[in-house]
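[audit] Reproducing an earlier prediction to check determinism. Same input, same settings, fresh worker. If the tokens differ from the archived copy the diff job will pick it up downstream; this log only records the rerun itself.
[audit] input (90 residues):
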Amino acid sequence: MKKALVVASLAVGISLIFDYLFFAVYMGSKDVWHITTFYGYAWLAVLTFGEVLLLKKKLLTRQYAVTTRLLLILTLCLLFLLFFLFYYLM
């Protein structure tokens, strides 16, 4: 459950940042967050916890060891994707 909380908070945090960057900065919108936006953020958290509760046995049998090398590769891929998106949008 602790890992699900981390994943849910990361998903909501990334969504907050990208909503702000896209709608407020890029589009110039004054009203970035509405109640429906917060419903979407809550839905991300519900999906994460629902997946853990429904697939708990399957997730425990298929554990994958996360190494420093894998985290570095994923971080570099994410940075490349962000750079490409910002370059493409500007």
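[audit] rerun output stored. Observation attached for the diff report: The radius of gyration is 16 Å.
[audit] end
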